[in-house]
Sequence to fold (529 residues):
Amino acid sequence: MKKLAFATALTLAAFTVQAQAQEPRHGGTIRFTAPYGASFVSNDSHVSNQIQDEIYGYALHSMLYKWDAKNGKPALDLAKSVTVSPDGKTYTYKLRDDALFHNGRKMTADDIIWSYTRIMDGSKNYPGARYIARIVGATDVQKGTAKEISGLKKIDDFTLEMTLTDKADPGYFLFQATTAIMPAKEAQAPDFFNKPIGLGPFKFVEHVPGSRMVFEKWEKYYQPGKPYADKLVISPMGEAAARDVAFRNKEIDVSILGSTQYVAYKADPNLSKGLLEVAEVFTRNMGMNPAFKPFSDKRVRQAINYAIDSDLIIKRLVRDKAYRAVSWLPLSSPAFDKNAKPYAYDPEKAKKLLAEAGYPDGFEFEWTATPNESWGIPIVEATIPMLAKVGIKVKVKPVETSALGGVIVKGDFQAYIWSNTSGPDSLTALKCFHSSTPRSSCNYTTFKNAAYDKLIDDASAETDAAKQLELLKKANALLQDEAPVWFFNYNKAVMAYQPWLHGLQPNATELALQRYEDLWVDATSPAAK
Fold:
């Protein structure tokens, strides 16, 4: 079902991929961009919940699984094979014996166990905890009642047994850099993250904050003949205009396009030849903090959804570089209900709901937003006159993109606007709204609903795939009715690439995340040498 859903998503994506008739060329430099902020949060990939940092994590680290963008499903990466128990909960991995950390030491089962245990440190609020929590005993470590994850057992150096709390494919939640496998002994050194080492295709050279992160080829990478490039430079460029200038000047090899650039690049006879498009599993939304009294009332949250003409904003401001959101799950999700309808634009209904909730004259709230043109201040500004029509006043609180995650995790907001992962696994995505999921993981609105919890718990326990799917559809529908967020849109991601760059894939989990070991530049690149 998941495979079919992603195949469908890829057929929806109109993209052009460069011809692969040439043999991959070795050498040269790949000049990548991290487009979601002016800097990276940390050299520690376990720390950040931002895609900005995930982008460099794919170069430096390897995870137990990797995302196979071509086939729309996870694939083993640090394991050669896996066997699954009859109940679908216990996975036994035969780990790679040729995966070497950048200091030359072989990875063993101890490194995986240490990495996952570290992520569950309850005092640190690591974002990857939401994934590791699905291993038996992981939450005990998080609560401080255990020092080891009971569901992880080392059989020998290269055999690992993992028992899950529910029947699931761990590949769908153990491929992110927030679950990167780090060297157990070395990573505990106090200065480790000044020059971190990993298992990835490129090893760390330097990080110049606000400018670039530089990597060089790891000659002992476990995939023979890869990576192709000698060097990788990732430059944080949060401003779309800066990326546009750099791309047109041939200073960078790729650029994630905003809505304005999308229109301009499509109209350009040369630039239009190098566009890669895909429907990503991200939901743009305005999260509402129930600690701010008006937002604790469902009718107010519903009124927000009725008061905003989302379709008009998508058409005029986003330039149709998005799909209208119905509820949380995106179009590519197997639990997406094709018959469901989004909130209609109905200011009168919004006014009625506000009056019923005790706010006939509306109210004022503070909306935290970044400069991002697709899900930031420009979008907020477009909603202000719409909300004003129903009596709701908005005060914009600007923050840097790199700081947004920290603000939200602390709960220091009345409302925020963000783009959040809503796939690829439906159950994992919907668990973000389960009352047991902390804000530090992904329940940013601290949503609590007993009926919703039961649907998710029942879905977690259900072994019949079809029945589980129906439960998840009901949960997604209930979420739409409860409206913990304003459901804005699902992202249509577009990447512009230079004609000399080869090997890109339409990654629906996040287009900016590419397998750097598969990328190569031909001799026409300005950085071919």
